[in-house]
Amino acid sequence: MPTSAHSSAQSIVVVDYNGGNLASAARALSRAAADSGIDATVTITADPQAVMQADRIVLPGQGAFADCAAGLAARPGLHDAIVEATDNGTPFLGICVGMQLMAERGREHGVTSGFGWIAGEIALMDAPDLRLPQMGWNQLEFTPGIHPLTEGLPVEAHGYFVHSFALRGYDPADMVATTDYGGTVPAIVARGNRAGTQFHVEKSQKVGLRILSNFLRWTPVPDRMT
Question: Known catalytic residue: 68?
Answer without folding.
Answer: no
